[in-house]
Amino acid sequence: MPKGKKTVFFCQNCGYESPKWMGQCPGCRQWNTFAEEIISTGNKGISVQSPGSGVKNKPVALTKIQAGEDDRIKTDMEELDRVLGGGIVQGSMVLVGGDPGIGKSTLLLQVCRQLSGKGHKVLYISGEESLRQIKLRAERIGEFNDQLLLMCETNLETIRQTIEEVKPEAVVIDSIQTMYNEQVSSAPGSVSQVRESTGILMQIAKGLGISVFIVGHVTKDGSVAGPRVLEHMVDTVLYFEGDRQVAYRILRSVKNRFGSTNEIGVFEMQDKGLAEVKNPSQAMLNGRPTDASGSVVVCSIEGTRPILIEIQALVTKTNFGLPRRTSVGIDYNRVNLLMAVLEKRAGLHLGDWDAYVNLAGGMRLGEPAIDLGIVLAIASSYKNKVVDEGLLIFGEVGLSGEIRGVSMAEQRVREAEKLGFTACLMPKANLDSIQGKYRIRLIGASNIKEAMEYI
Ligand code: TYD
Ligand code: MG
């Protein structure tokens, strides 16, 4: 091996670095994920320089630091602004992850359109598509003005020079996995390339005060391809998810240095690009079957916003020895656990019944407040009794069958009333603080046996 070249092994899953090959990664416990990558020794490590590094830093008293409101650029796409915490912070770096074909490029091109429409200079750099392809997409989205500049480039040195020359206010890098830096000899998309490229873009963002959006593809197991290290480096991580067969797309923030996480934005993929869904509850409940057993409506708080959504369960007799259980949009283990609670605490014999539990609209929910809804959907299908379609259900279910109080109960009740529900089945513990404030009928239950009387 020529002098000055050194190879290290990187875990392609989590970015763990090791001088020798290993079968199992000590970082993430995955097997066979190590790949050899050449790094040149002249380049001392791969580190993100903090803004102003090289200058001798002195500690400063916290009280002496002036920090006005962040400078934010609003995109006027409300769903996106909210997920970002109120707009794009200048000099911030946002990673947008998602499956291929989910609409990341479309979303960012629309962001570019909004920003350039407001007179901000924007540079869109694509390493995946030709100018013609981007033009074709842009034609579907709408009119653009001269403030949006396009470039097809994958060499980071050229990109850096261009950014310094053009001085845009925002830059979009369409797919960090296609970018490469000549100083790193491994292939584009490998851990060290992606890490190094992100580091360089970070310096550009912080140094010049440019907001940078980077697109990252997601691997099969759901992490941004290869390096989770990437997530530590950037300011904000957004995931764009949804079922490709369903038109709804959910933009979720999993990390945000300038706002709250758990916030979601809902979009719908149309033939003219992504449209915002301002009232997701209504959209999610569209086409709900009436008079069908196993269908209930629950309320989940996503970030600061309550979302009503339908849970469907189908419970049928098992044909084989082992009952089949599947869940879509809800944690599979949670469904199994709740079925065990139903069996033990409510005397439902589900042992030789199959159960299929689905969340409508391609959503994914993890809030425990939907427990009671899952329980009642299963019980409703098992008993073949219809749950009143004007009933909204929320509450967390414990292992002894008790219904526990949940946070933000009042917001849930308000949303239910707004959408024309007539009654709310909720934890007794939450009842006192809300009783009498709303016209909607409130029913408190303290365990699942009590709750099952309402189906
Ligand atoms: P794209 O943004 O290319 O996905 P990604 O960058 O995440 O890989 O989105 C591609 C999909 O979106 C493609 O299947 C076509 C569809 N689409 C529409 O349905 N309507 C539209 O207006 C546009 C631009 C794309
Ligand atoms: Mg794309």
Describe this structure in words.
The longest helix has 18 residues, at 191-208. A nine-stranded mixed sheet has the order 8-7-9-10-6-11-12-13-14, with helices on both faces. Strands 17-18-16-15-19-22-23 form a seven-stranded mixed sheet. It has a three-stranded antiparallel sheet with strand order 2-1-3, with no helix packed on it. The chain is built from twelve helices and 23 strands. Helix content is 27%, strand content 27%. The protein has 455 residues and is α/β, with parallel strands linked by helices. The protein has three domains: 5-40, Single Sheet (Rubrerythrin, domain 2), CATH 2.20.28; 73-278, Rossmann fold, CATH 3.40.50.300; 283-454, Ribosomal Protein S5, domain 2 (2-Layer Sandwich). The structure holds thymidine-5'-diphosphate (TYD) and magnesium ion. Thymidine-5'-diphosphate (TYD) is lined by residues 98, 100-106, 137, 140, 269, 271-273.
CATH superfamily of the largest domain: P-loop containing nucleotide triphosphate hydrolases
Within the CATH hierarchy, at the fold level, what is the topology of the largest domain? Rossmann fold
- Biggest β-sheet, characterized? 9 strands, mixed
What does the average pLDDT come to? 87
**Secondary structure tally, helices:** 12
Using the 3D structure, state the CATH architecture of the largest domain: 3-Layer(aba) Sandwich
What molecules are bound to this protein?
thymidine-5'-diphosphate, magnesium ion
Shape: globular
How many DSSP-defined strands?
A: 23
Oligomer: single chain
Structural class: alpha/beta
Distance separating the two termini:
73 Å
Radius of gyration: 25 Å
Low-confidence spans: 43-50
Fraction of residues in helices? Answer: 25-40%
Number of domains: 3
Strand order of the largest sheet: 8-7-9-10-6-11-12-13-14
